[in-house]
């Protein structure tokens, strides 16, 4: 009975042809950028004939800075479009118009962290003539994702090999590799002591240093650098069993993913037991498959020449704690390299349609495009697809030292440092070696660690 007296209202809706746009900023400000196109339609459903003055569509990006220093809201992008109808009388029913926006490649991409957010929406308004007024459409979100590679290509992988002869512990070979270095992706780590002395390895760990830079419009505030965040990827000590084969290495228990620091890492009151004891001249190798954290904890690296108030950069650090035989002093061997971590939505798997089946399971919800990212894929699926190739089952099982591959990384700085600590308290660095690796370009990311592009300096 109520439906008989219910009055139908006119509505306005915005539809997007694609709600996710990939942006690749230019390598330098002087180079032209490859801007992307955002297309869609606006649909007006009239309950009765009306005179319409114009249709307005707006694409807007808002950055909300949530830092402790100052709260601020900035407009990162705004584009407006008007469709003039000149008080044309439209009949009752559905009317649609197409619209198009050009999105610059240097636009601030989607961001959400404890220091702020960057969001983009498309809104629409219909302005009527006379007393009819204006109706608006529900805002539609647009996801702008930064891609470190040109359109249609996958993110480049990480392939770093470092060899050093530190004198005290003998020749060391460190390898970091990943098929595609993105948020929530897999990474392989291998460290080899080729001819060690009598020593004890106390622990092996890896973590990501995540640094933010907040740019304010207010000159009195300028740029604010919050404290760096240390994201633990894995930590192995005497409580962690060593993998004896590739099959054990691919087990879920041997794949690290952002585990909390064990109590033995925080407490140094007692002398820690050794993870392994090395004999003089006997090679020893440690391998580990790591899964990077998801986008709730690890944000994508901000690409160069992206105009955004919130910038993020990362360094991947590998740390080995050890002590020499007969000594109580603990020492730390640390390797740090700058890396570009792409978004979890940049892989080709996010762009493919799901497989066709006769009947879709009733309990399987249809996820939106931006949710079909690498973070939502199970660890077992990633290990099954890339695990064996990542750890080199055919070659690394029989060879204690991995072969030096070509450097395929966007890392521009690699630091290998050795620190002393007595009684659990760190003292000044005893020896530090700095290596700067200049890659040939961000798109290809190729270079040579042992070539003329590496500058080595030592300080005692």
UniProtKB/TrEMBL annotation:
The protein's name: Arrestin-like N-terminal domain-containing protein
UniProt region (Disordered), positions on chain: 391-460
Residue ranges, compositional bias (Low complexity): 440-460
Superkingdom in the source lineage: Eukaryota
InterPro entries tied to this protein: Arrestin-like_C, Ig_E-set
